[in-house]
Specification:
There is one protein chain. The protein is mostly helical and 189 residues long. It has one domain: Ferritin (Up-down Bundle), CATH 1.20.1260.10. 64% of the residues lie in helices and 0% in strands. It is built from seven helices and no strands. The chain is elongated, with a radius of gyration of 18 Å.
């Protein structure tokens, strides 16, 4: 199904060690509105979506896995030169005690990822509206992360991810219209 190119979808550069920012970025790694939850949500929903839009869910799910890889790279680069004391000061002492420097699917507050983050109603329109909301929440989180760093290199990668969330939201809105038209429903947008 996939052909993996051994490169990131978009370059990830950071200009300095910033453990606190790495902690905040884990929100997009293992949080409710993060990349893992989105990828798994869309991959799962594709089994109950009409064939007309199934490819869209597969495409976006695949891209979300690429975004997950970018976030992991950001976290790694922001923490690779950090001391244990810096990890503790940033609130990652418990994480270090449990996982050393390994990434773990949890949000910025340290709450582990859970399958309850994955919404699937089985109604294509309801699921697509859920997907639109998920993309908009991810977009908002990326904006807040951009606002929290002065690292212009990191901001560049985060802006790329924010823009991709906007594109995904628009694509899901188009899918809603396609299915509503097919079902003869009146649009509410």
């Amino acid at each position: 199904m996939w052909i993996y190119e051994k490169k990131l979808q978009y370059p990830v550069r950071v200009s300095k060690c910033d453990v606190k920012m790495a902690k905040y970025l884990t929100e997009q790694y293992g949080g409710a509105d993060g990349e893992l939850a989105a990828a798994l949500r869309y991959m799962n929903q594709r089994y109950t979506i009409p064939n007309k839009v199934i490819g869209l869910l597969t495409d976006i799910a695949t891209e979300e896995f690429a975004h997950l890889e970018m976030i992991a790279t950001m976290v790694y680069k922001l923490t690779k030169d950090a001391t244990v004391e810096q990890l503790e000061e940033a609130g990652l002492g418990a994480h270090y005690a449990n996982h050393d420097r390994a990434l773990f699917y949890n949000n910025a507050a340290g709450v582990p990822w859970t399958a309850t983050y994955i919404a699937a109603k089985g109604d294509p329109i309801a699921d697509l509206y859920e997907d639109i909301a998920a993309e908009e929440k991810a977009r908002a989180t990326y904006q807040w992360l951009i606002d929290m760093t002065d690292d212009v290199d990191l901001q560049d990668s985060l802006k790329f991810l924010r823009e991709r969330e906007i594109v995904h939201s628009l694509r899901f809105r188009e899918a809603v219209e396609i299915l509503k038209e097919e079902q003869g429903r009146k649009t509410i947008f």
